[in-house]
């Protein structure tokens, strides 16, 4: 039945009468339709809905747009709108019998899914991933996005090669409100989205002590998605982190956010309120709070490509003054999906941090600049996702003890299933 929902519009367009309204619209841009359908195939259903709604506003008699929009509404779980649009095409004059039969099949599928959603609004998905990586500087910047060490490494321990292996187990849960509603006159749907994951990474290599990094995380929060591409969300999350078998830290985070459709893309704003508790005595001085936010604009470029650019800022308090700091930066992201299976992506991120207080190692307040480049390729085969990623990090500072370079090459395989 899922296959039918994906292929139905092509079957509906077999009737030549459905092509006539499109041909009559001189200003109709077929590329816009193709881009919207590409968004829908890539899972960006609400972006597709927003684009198709705009097209329908320009050519309200375009039956094909109505049918593609109905399928998008079905995928989004906004069943009432899917039924309404398909019903409008069904009532149009001159629709061939074969097309009417396909519309009836679509309406039956929509009714089945609507009933199933009312009876069981919960959906679980799972992912099990394995990865293998070569790291040319394992002692510096270890998983900075997760642990965010911000500590100096003695020169005698730098530039140590290591091989790392790891696993990641993820459980996603989405609760969908059984019926759709309206937000400022637009069809909308309320969700409760949750995620739990277990992450374990083990390093080994010449002159490097073996150790493990373990992260256990859980997050949940409501999301309101509106058919015009607007979304409102709020999430709470807890991260428990162990390093070398000992409790390193526990983070508690609140992240409100909003996505606003503007022009061909969307403006994404997220806030950050985080309490950071450290378990070891050597890290207790870093305990404190972090407050900040980010702002980014993302837009489709056509032919399956998408780009985004943004800025971020946060300020962090700490028990030790030399661990208090402000950080700001910017990023550029790009991705390209090919034939629904391949994805190429790249990201450049720049971050500047200014610390308070005197750092004993260098005798002055620390200042750092980090440049991070990530590039990779993914291949989706049935329920499997295979990937190769390259990461390069370069940190400059006003003290040599805090400068380092790091390069990581990682291969991964992930199995995703319901």
Which structural traits does this protein have?
single chain; disordered N terminus; 418 residues; 14-stranded antiparallel β-barrel; alpha+beta
Explained architecture:
By secondary structure, the protein is α+β, with helices and mostly antiparallel strands. Helix content is 22%, strand content 51%. A 14-stranded antiparallel barrel has the order 1-2-4-5-6-7-8-9-10-11-12-13-14-15. Helix 6 packs antiparallel against helix 7 (97-119). The longest helix is centred in the first third of the chain and has 23 residues, at 97-119. It is elongated, with a radius of gyration of 25 Å. The model is unreliable at 1-27 and 141-157 (pLDDT under 50).
Annotate the secondary structure layout.
Blueprint: H1 2-12, H2 19-24, H3 30-41, H4 45-58, H5 63-76, H6 79-90, H7 97-119, E1 122-135, E2 162-176, E3 181-183, E4 186-205, E5 208-226, E6 231-243, E7 246-262, E8 265-278, E9 288-302, E10 305-316, E11 325-338, E12 342-355, E13 367-381, E14 384-397, E15 404-417
């Amino acid at each position: 039945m899922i296959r039918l929902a994906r292929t139905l519009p092509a079957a509906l367009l077999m009737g030549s009468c459905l092509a006539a309204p499109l041909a009559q619209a001189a200003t109709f841009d077929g590329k816009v339709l193709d881009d919207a359908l590409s968004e829908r195939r890539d899972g960006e259903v609400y972006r597709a809905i927003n684009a198709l709604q705009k097209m329908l506003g320009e050519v309200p008699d375009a039956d094909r747009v109505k049918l593609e929009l109905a399928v998008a509404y079905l995928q989004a779980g906004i069943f009432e709108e899917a039924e309404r649009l398909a019903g409008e095409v069904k009532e149009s004059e001159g629709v061939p019998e074969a097309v009417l039969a396909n519309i009836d099949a679509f309406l039956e599928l929509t009714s089945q899914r609507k009933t199933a959603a009312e009876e069981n609004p919960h959906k679980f998905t799972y992912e099990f991933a394995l990865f293998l990586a070569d790291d040319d500087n394992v002692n510096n910047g270890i998983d900075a996005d997760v642990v965010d060490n911000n500590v100096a490494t003695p020169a005698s321990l730098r530039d140590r090669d290591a091989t790392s292996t790891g696993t990641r187990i993820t459980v996603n849960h989405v609760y969908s409100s059984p019926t759709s509603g309206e937000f400022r006159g637009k069809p909308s749907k309320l969700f409760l989205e949750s995620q739990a994951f277990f992450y374990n990474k083990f390093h080994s290599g010449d002159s490097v002590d073996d150790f493990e990094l373990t992260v256990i995380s859980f997050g949940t929060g409501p999301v309101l998605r509106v058919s015009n591409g607007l979304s409102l969300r709020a999430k709470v999350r807890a991260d428990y982190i162990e390093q070398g078998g000992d409790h390193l830290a526990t983070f508690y985070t609140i992240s409100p956010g909003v996505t606003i459709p503007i022009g061909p893309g969307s403006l994404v704003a997220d806030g950050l309120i985080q309490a950071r508790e450290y378990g070891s005595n050597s890290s207790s001085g870093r305990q404190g709070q972090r407050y900040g936010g980010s702002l980014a604009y993302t837009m489709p470029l056509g032919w399956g490509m998408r780009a985004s650019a943004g800025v971020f800022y946060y300020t962090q308090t700490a028990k030790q003054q030399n661990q208090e700091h402000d950080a700001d930066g910017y990023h550029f992201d790009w991705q390209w999906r090919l034939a629904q299976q391949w994805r190429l992506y790249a990201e450049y991120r720049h971050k500047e941090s200014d610390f308070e207080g005197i750092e004993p190692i260098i005798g002055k307040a620390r200042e750092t600049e980090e440049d991070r480049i990530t590039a990779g390729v993914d291949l989706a085969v049935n329920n499997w996702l295979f990937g190769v990623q390259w990461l390069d990090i370069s940190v400059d500072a006003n003290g040599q003890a805090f400068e380092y370079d790091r390069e990581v090459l990682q291969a991964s395989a992930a199995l995703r299933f319901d």
